[in-house]
Amino acid sequence: MGEQKRREREQEKPEAYFIFEKKNYIFMAVGLAVIALGYLLMAGGGSDNPEVFNPDIYSWRRIHLAPSLVLLGFGIEVYAILLNPSKKK
Length: 89
Hints:
The protein is an all-alpha fold. The protein has three helices and no strands. α2 runs antiparallel to α3. The model has no long low-confidence stretch (mean pLDDT 87).
């Protein structure tokens, strides 16, 4: 009796599956690309000589555009996690 139950449990092992579906992973990849682009736009602008001020640090690209892209990327990531593509309308 015990041997038969053990065999049944071995045969009923759950299948391995991904938590997310393909659509979720696509949105996650897009979100990561947007975040990376934001950080790349934020980089640079330094000066080789610490005695010289470089006003390019305060450019519109670094102060407004890059942080906005990073926040947008994180928003896309949250959407990708919460997205339920198998939900039928």
